[in-house]
Design brief:
heterodimer; A: about 120 residues; mainly beta; seven-stranded mixed β-sheet; four-stranded antiparallel β-sheet; about 0% helix; about 55% strand; elongated; B: about 110 residues; five-stranded mixed β-sheet
């Protein structure tokens, strides 16, 4: 199984709503990532988890709250978002990077397209 | 991590080789060159990576200059399905905190029939 599964594929929410994006992988990867991608722009790194601990936060506003409940799951909790937060949210996973056999390849999901009204 | 420079867009005829250049003049000795592509409305897909030797896999070839300041991704027989944005990324490979993979603007490749 070389898939990263993201749900939901589409989400529409109001600025006062609380919602969550979910990501799951069963490749035994111990690093997981959230990226945000606006139309016609490259993906922007938001968060990196390694061994279920937050290792990188790229100065993301607190209305985005990541959570890694176990090694296979990664959530992104959304609260009080703004219309400019509308984007494609991509999840990825990889090996952590300790062994010579680690390729450093990131495996991406298909993304969750978020619209904030 | 070193910054990369790529052309904004390129055209290629179907069946011909597509050669996508990337400049990374500030690359350091322990940094690798990675290539990903993103087909419209899909997540990025890993293509290939290398340190200093040329690399080949079933998708593409990667040619890295001897001074490592630039590289070229070669798709030997481009098809319409290769139309995508291609990203060249330079970063280290070792670390226990995951890989800080930063995407630049990339090259939009159009393969034409």
């Amino acid at each position: 199984d070389t898939e990263v599964t993201q749900t939901p594929k589409h989400l529409v929410m109001g600025m006062t709503n609380k919602k969550s994006l979910k990501c799951e992988q069963h490749m035994g990867h111990r690093a997981m990532y959230w990226y945000k991608q606006k139309a016609k722009k490259p993906p922007e790194l938001m968060f990196v988890y390694s061994y279920e601990k937050l290792s990188i936060n790229e100065s993301v506003p607190s209305r985005f709250s990541p959570e890694c409940p176990n090694s296979s799951l990664l959530n992104l909790h959304l609260h009080a978002l703004q219309p400019e937060d509308s984007a494609l949210y991509l999840c990825a996973s990889s090996q952590v990077g300790q062994g010579r056999r680690d390729t450093g390849e990131l495996f991406f999901g298909e993304g969750s397209r978020l619209t904030v009204l | 991590d070193a910054k990369t420079t790529q052309p904004t867009s390129m055209d290629c005829a179907e069946g011909r080789a597509a050669n996508l250049p990337c400049n990374h003049s500030t690359i350091s000795g322990n940094e690798y060159v990675y290539w990903y592509r993103q087909i419209h409305s899909q997540g990025p897909q890993y293509i290939i990576h290398g340190l200093k030797n040329n690399e080949t896999n079933e998708m593409a070839s990667l040619i890295i200059t001897e001074d490592r300041k630039s590289s070229t991704l070669i798709l030997p027989h481009a098809t319409l399905r290769d139309t995508a944005v291609y990203y060249c990324i330079v970063r280290g490979r070792r670390g226990t905190g995951g890989f800080k993979t930063i995407f630049g603007a990339g090259t939009r490749l159009f393969v034409k029939a």
